[in-house]
Amino acid sequence: MGVTLKQLAVLSAVVEHDGFGAAADHLGVDQSSVSHSVAALERTAGAPLVHRTSPLRPTELGRALLPHARTALAATRAIESLISEHHQNKPAGTVKIAASPTVAHRLLPRLLNHWAECLPGVDIRVFEGDDDELEEWLNSGVVDCAILIDPEPMPADGVELLQDRFRAVLRNDHPFSSLDQVGLPELLDDPLLVSSGGCEPQIKELHALSGVRYDPAQRVRELSTLLSMVENDIGVAIMPSLASSMLPGTLVMVDITPRLERRLVFAGPSARPWHPQVSRMLELITTMSAD
């Protein structure tokens, strides 16, 4: 028996969600169905595709299969969308979009509302990831489009949404909290706290522009942990302006010099045809910006 799209979808879900149970919840099926699909694909392959450990991880063969599985699944979503639209005479289908936490928290909800109003038959599903994961997900077919951070080179047919300035995050009783702006060297009289989940390359660039050594006192992954540490007076942080809506009332943002911004770019994949609804979503972004 040959490989089926269902088996590829299950394998992808098992790896993306780090286990059979979580994959079953994501797919809306029971865990035994997930186990049977993976086992059937492994029989066809003649070798294990995942190490059944905690956390689960793909074997060498499983890792080699995943990019092709994701590309096939992305193409299938596009084909199903085109067929549905042909019969319903209106936009339809499922689109997966990736964004970083700060973008997903502040910018993406406005876009989702606009798309839902203009494309009511399209199911848009959000994947939240670290900055360096987004382009990889887009290229491998995990998602159909993404809001990329400072992509180089600029993606073909991509559109820049905005430029987002980096600012200092301080307690509201910090001596600099009432200033209009603070120089990075002065800010670093306090310990610097950094999230490894995103923006670290830009923060390193900001240090280079200032001619000061990059030496964070703490590196954590989650933004919520970072904000909690600033709130508890462990140090200061540097974050993009879009993160302002995530701040508790005890924290404030202050402009930093030298000025540094990141570019947020909406893009589809560069190495395969775009999902038809992604092209429509981009057109709607352009209209939204014009408004």
Q: What would you say this structure looks like, in words?
A:
With 291 residues, the chain is of the alpha/beta class. It has 11 helices and 12 strands. Strands 3, 4, 5, 6, 7, 8, 9, 10, 11 and 12 form a 10-stranded mixed sheet that branches. Helix 9 (200-210) links the parallel strand 8 and strand 9. It is globular.
Low-confidence segments, ≥5 residues, pLDDT <50?
none
CATH topology of one domain: D-Maltodextrin-Binding Protein, domain 2
Mean pLDDT score: 93
| Cα shape | globular
Number of helices: 11
* Topology as a string of helices (H) and strands (E): HHHEEHEHHEHEEEHEHEHEEEH
Gap from first CA to last CA: 54 Å
Cα-atom radius of gyration:
22 Å
Strand content: 15-25%
Helix content: 40-55%
- Overall CATH architecture of one domain: 3-Layer(aba) Sandwich
Task: Please report the first level of CATH classification, the CATH class of one domain.
Answer: Alpha Beta
Largest sheet: 10 strands, mixed
- Specify the structural class: alpha/beta
How many distinct beta strands? 12
Which structural traits does this protein have?
single chain, D-Maltodextrin-Binding Protein, domain 2, two-stranded antiparallel sheet, 11 helices, 45% helix
